[in-house]
Design brief:
It comes from Arthrobacter hankyongi. The protein is mainly β. Helices cover 5% and strands 28% of the residues. The chain has one helix and eleven strands, in the order βββαββββββββ. The strands form four sheets. The protein has a three-stranded antiparallel β-sheet with strand order 1-2-3. The chain has a three-stranded antiparallel β-sheet with strand order 7-4-11, with no helix packed on it. The model has no long low-confidence stretch (mean pLDDT 86).
């Protein structure tokens, strides 16, 4: 709403407004202090199993066999190439990658079990 206010750190919408000493997002209901909005660091870097920084759209390979739980089950083999990953902050447990794995469909992966293809 106001051009001078930062976007919401939770949902990244730009409809924030001031309410007393707080900034409020009407989209998700998140409230935060004006002071923390200025000092909030950039999103944490997500690194693969060997320390390479990952980004949305990267191509990665699986570094160890992964047992898939749920319907059908199966095993994602070492060396499986996964294209077009998407980094997420709200994954199940400590899963921080959302990707389409060939032969399995959409899965969430941990960054510690993938290696970026350089």
């Amino acid at each position: 709403m106001s051009d001078g206010l930062p976007a919401c750190p939770e949902c990244h919408e730009s409809f924030t407004y001031e309410q007393g000493a707080l900034l409020v997002c009407p989209m998700c209901g998140h409230e935060w202090s004006k002071d923390t909005a200025e000092t909030t660091p950039e999103t944490a870097l997500i690194k693969d199993a060997v320390g390479n920084v990952l980004a949305d759209g990267d191509i990665v390979t699986i570094v160890k066999d992964l047992k898939v739980k749920g319907a059908g089950g199966g095993v994602v083999k070492v060396g499986t190439k996964v294209r077009g990953i998407r980094l997420i902050g709200d994954g199940v447990g400590d899963h921080d990658i959302d990707a389409t794995v060939p032969g399995f469909g959409r899965l969430q992966l941990k960054s510690g079990v993938v290696k970026k293809v350089l």
